[in-house]
Amino acid sequence: MIISKSPLRVSFFGGGTDLPKFYKKYEGSVLSTAISRYIYVSVKDLNESYKEKYRLNYSITERKSNISEIKNNIIRETLRYMKINSNIYISTIADVPLRSGLGSSSSFTSALVSALAYKENIILSKKELAQIACEIEITKLKSPIGKQDQYASVYGGINKINFHKNGEVSVKKVILSKKFRNQFEKSFLLLWSGVQRSANNVLLDQSKKIISNVDYYKEIKNITKYGYDIFNKDDFDINKFSDLLSESWQLKTRLSSKILTPKTKKILEIAKLSGALSSKICGAGNGGFILICAKPKYHQEIKNALSDYTFHKFNIEDNGVETKKI
To answer: What 3-state class would DSSP assign to 254?
Structure first.
């Protein structure tokens, strides 16, 4: 059996500038981190006990004889792209609910491509793996997403990811001292709102309005540079970082009326009243996980005020996609 583990991500600044309608004209830039929450994909050959050619286990089980019958779009198109013709068993497990704003679909795609490449003895660099994941999701499936999630998951760690006009992507990894990393990780909480949502609806609405909102996107891109500069200091400046996070979030809410809901708006308000310096909805918005930036002394007060919700630890994941045979 081959197992691939792919981390989820939290994006701090630049979300939306990785959409082709923007970066092909102005270039984009995103600052994000992979986190220690994962999508796991296992792949193995089906033996003679199974009558079907494809057995797929995710939120449902599919047993199919023809690739065109597969309902899971990512699995179907990845099998086609990788030219897998053998009988195969694919299973996936997630640490968090899907459609939650942490880039799970791209993490899943990256993990699946990596596992299948391993099976076929194909050696892929991190850049090649991320490129293939983008090709499957954006070109083959025509998902209205950007390129940041695939690169964040594949590379791991904190990265400034730049999207160039010609479609090329460059990744600049942030190296932190142990002291800075400790300060940084202890400054955030991840809250699960309990709302699973389709990012596509929000992203389609954003994409339609990119031209009219282009000045907002330019400001969001500039904030990414200032955020990146904070990592060049000896100590983490939580006040400066949270100010940029707030500024970026306020700009983002102007991109689409679908980003905020009454429920998520209330969560953000309660967090602020309980000591949060800033907070934002992860991913496209509308639901999913909420990132809360606060000094550690206020964390328990925030958790008490929002005790109806589940909190996850915020830890940086350094390695990106990992695949091995067991």
So the answer is: coil
